[in-house]
Write a structure and sequence with these properties.
Length: 112
């Protein structure tokens, strides 16, 4: 099992979750965070820390979010995405994006 960051994180990028991760498995892109499934130790302490409620166990992923398992795995290995373990401010317009659904088209897959 691993944990997965989903659609709700896109354009918000709250980093509360990264500070509690005991194995530094979060990676940061321009407008999204991902979890490296190879590094995740399945502790789940990141879930309650996410204000966007964007993190799920892979076995609990909603059907419309299943593709984020592969997105997390791919982007965690992206050479421009870097490990993050310190809290930063969310994106400037995070509040307007927090309740928006279906943000995959907004995902910036380039470097942070």
């Amino acid at each position: 099992m691993t944990f997965v960051v989903t659609d709700a994180c896109i354009q918000c990028k709250y980093t509360d979750c990264v500070t509690v991760c005991p194995v530094d498995c979060f990676y940061e892109g321009p407008n999204f965070l991902v979890i490296d499934p190879e590094a995740c130790v399945d502790c789940g302490i990141c879930i309650p820390e996410c204000p966007a409620e964007a993190i799920f166990a892979d076995v609990d992923l909603p059907p419309d979010q299943q593709h984020f398992l592969q997105i997390n795995a791919d982007l965690a290995k992206h050479p421009a995405w870097t490990m993050i373990n310190v809290q930063k401010d969310p994106l400037p317009d995070h509040a307007q994006w927090l309740t928006v659904k279906g943000k995959l088209g907004q995902l910036d897959r380039h470097g942070a």
